[in-house]
């Protein structure tokens, strides 16, 4: 015998109408991984900062749960809150974390020759590092469209900007990444 | 991947897509995160401890004041409405039942109002 899993909408209704904290806890449990990993990407891999921001995200979501209209997916709504929390925090500290080697120099492909790393794994590592040279909106657009698999329209909703702006951010981000990871190009 | 109008046929796209797959496949273990969030949820709004007895006291005072200033009015109105509803004169048992019902309704309303507040 298997019971039907409770949907997000049902859990939200319980949390709003009955102030059911267990229902909200279940929502947190379901979405914590996506929200925390998204924030880790946005913060450039700062796990402690990302988890603090993730906690703020869920607390804000709890306070504003009544205003969630089910027009978008709950996860998209959470991503939007998470991005706003991230932006507020970035404004507070006035500077974004930048890697020490983020000087615009192209990344060497030396890692690819390391015996323990496959080419794909090495590219993945370099891509992670290269992401840090992107501007905050460019990185956010890449994270939403590629990592969270959102459409341009959904990403625009999350980032609070027009769809055209999302496309521009992605285009510019990819130009920067190509320049940074030029050594990985098949033509190189 | 949903990057419709962007050049999708290059190595960077493939790398980004692969990174996206890895990102979605990698589950971040809860490790007490949910418990920490639930522990930080704001407390449910409750009435100050002094407020409920004060409300009851005010109602009692208002009732007593009305009873003192209009001694016959309550009795007349009560008996008339009960007689109208029941169609006969009230006995002691009827009065006791009505009193209990009225008390229960009053307390229920008070508790509900206090909770809603």
Structural summary, described in words:
- The complex is a heterodimer of chains A (188) and B (117).
- Chain A is mostly helical and 188 residues long.
- Chain A has eight helices and no strands.
- The radius of gyration of chain A is 19 Å and the shape is elongated.
- Chain B is rod-shaped, with a radius of gyration of 33 Å.
- Chain B is mainly alpha-helical and 117 residues long.
- Chain B is built from five helices and no strands.
- In chain B, 70% of the residues lie in helices and 0% in strands.
- Classes of the chains: A mainly alpha (188), B mainly alpha (117).
- Chains A and B meet through helix 2, helix 3, helix 5, helix 6 and helix 7 of A and helix 1 and helix 2 of B.
Task: Offer a quick outline of the entry.
By secondary structure, chain A is mainly alpha-helical. Chain A is built from eight helices and no strands.
What descriptors fit this protein?
heterodimer, A: 188 residues, mainly alpha, Rna Polymerase Sigma Factor, Chain: A, Arc Repressor Mutant, subunit A, 2 domains, 8 helices, elongated, B: 117 residues, 5 helices, rod-shaped, disordered N terminus
Overall average residue pLDDT of chain B: 78
* Strand-pairing-aware structural class of chain A: mainly alpha
Largest interface by residue count?
Answer: A-B, 45 and 34 residues
Q: Give the beta-strand count of chain A.
A: 0
How far is the first residue's CA from the last residue's CA of chain B? 48 Å
The first-to-last residue Cα distance of chain A is 58 Å
Question: What secondary-structure arrangement, pairings included, does this model have?
Answer:
The complex is a heterodimer of chains A (188) and B (117).
Chain A: H1 8-17, H2 21-42, H3 47-63, H4 74-93, H5 119-131, H6 136-147, H7 152-159, H8 163-180
Helix pairs in contact in A: 1-2, 2-3, 2-4, 3-4, 4-7, 6-7, 6-8, 7-8
Chain B: H1 11-25, H2 33-39, H3 51-69, H4 71-86, H5 92-116
Helix pairs in contact in B: 3-4
């Amino acid at each position: 015998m298997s019971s039907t899993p409770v949907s997000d909408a049902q859990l939200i209704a319980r949390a709003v109408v009955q102030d059911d904290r267990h229902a909200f806890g279940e929502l947190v449990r379901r979405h914590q991984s996506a929200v925390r990993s998204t924030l880790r990407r946005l913060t450039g891999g700062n796990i402690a900062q990302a988890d603090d921001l993730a906690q703020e995200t869920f607390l804000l979501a709890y306070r504003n749960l009544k205003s969630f209209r089910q027009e978008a997916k709950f996860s998209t709504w959470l991503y939007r809150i998470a991005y706003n929390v991230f932006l507020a925090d970035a404004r507070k500290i006035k500077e974004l974390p930048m890697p020490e080697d983020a000087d615009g120099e192209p990344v060497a492909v030396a890692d690819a020759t390391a015996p323990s790393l496959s080419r794909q794994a090495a590219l993945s590592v370099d891509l992670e590092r290269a992401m840090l040279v992107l501007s905050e909106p460019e990185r956010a657009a890449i994270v939403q469209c590629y990592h969270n698999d959102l459409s341009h329209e959904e990403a625009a909703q999350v980032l609070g900007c027009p769809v055209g702006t999302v496309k521009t951010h992605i285009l510019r981000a990819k130009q920067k990444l190509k320049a940074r990871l030029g050594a990985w190009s098949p033509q190189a | 991947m949903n990057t419709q109008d962007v050049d999708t046929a290059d190595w960077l796209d493939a790398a980004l897509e692969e990174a996206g797959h890895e990102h979605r496949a990698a589950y971040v273990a809860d490790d007490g995160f949910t418990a920490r969030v639930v522990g930080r949820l704001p407390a449910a709004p409750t009435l100050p401890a002094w407020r409920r007895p004060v409300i009851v006291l005010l109602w009692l005072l208002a009732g007593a004041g009305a009873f003192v200033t209009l001694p016959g009015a309550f009795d007349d109105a009560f008996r008339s409405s009960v007689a109208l509803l029941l169609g006969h004169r009230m006995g002691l048992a009827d009065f006791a039942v009505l009193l209990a019902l009225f008390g229960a309704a009053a307390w229920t309303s008070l508790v509900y109002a206090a909770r809603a507040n």
